[in-house]
């Protein structure tokens, strides 16, 4: 009997052990199935949040965005736009409400995927850099420094810029053209196909180098300043701005505004050069028409350095900052709205991780 009891006990324990093992294996298998699905859903939500943030922020400042480009590329011998207020009034008087938002559809078609890729790339790059930082330092509690955030932001900016650059190129041309321009692009895809056919595939990436060089300090500083400023406010809690380790929407908007101001001031000359290089080869651009409507031969640039040299020689150093005022007025709310919209949409969609985490 004792032997039978022992065998029965052993058999029972074996059965229980087998059932437990099977249950654990089933649980692991279930988690294995759910994990990729959950990860994919989280990625989609993050991309949606970034896209919405880009579309909302850019549409809010579309008139200023168009004026900035017009100021950057206008012919110095035929000045039409003398400043922010005068420029906006001139566009309103000559082109109406549609003129204020000309090119915004193309702009949003570019900025939505650009913003989605940028925010998502920043999250992934910051996670990867933080992992390497903790391994190298041997400190599992180490956090991202402002310099590391700058690196993560630079990586995100380069990836997003490269992925959507042809859209930015044709957006610039659609924004500049007027009813008096002999060449009329009918839309995004018509512009893309026309440039590709008449100027070659390389034309779609004309000005890419100064764009990439400019995006490193621009996007890098945007993320670094925004995240570092938020961390500082949460840790020090000056003037009671941070309550329970949370910042109000107004305070986060202020952080975004500061980040945008710093980033665009440093990178702005490269943005001017990029825009001018994009116009090379487009002899029907409105910026190369004189006041009487006659065509004036535009400057040709052999590269980024040549564009810098010719711009400064023919128009002075100040030409590198043409359109800075409307761009500053545009960037302050645009970057602020983008950061805050991104975090709010992620909260609404139920994404656990914010860019600060």
Description of the structure:
The chain has 357 residues and is mostly helical. The protein has a single domain, classed as Mitochondrial carrier domain (Mitochondrial carrier fold, Alpha/alpha barrel), CATH 1.50.40.10. 74% of the residues lie in helices and 1% in strands. The protein has ten helices and two strands; from the N terminus they run H-H-H-H-H-H-H-E-E-H-H-H. It has helices at residues 2-60, 62-73, 84-100, 104-137, 146-176, 188-199, 208-236, 249-279, 304-315, 324-349, and strands spanning 242-243, 246-247. The chain has a two-stranded antiparallel ribbon. A hairpin with a 2-residue loop joins strand 1 and strand 2. Helix 2 packs across helix 3 (84-100). The chain is globular. The protein starts with a helix and ends in an 8-residue tail after the last helix. This is Mitochondrial carrier protein.
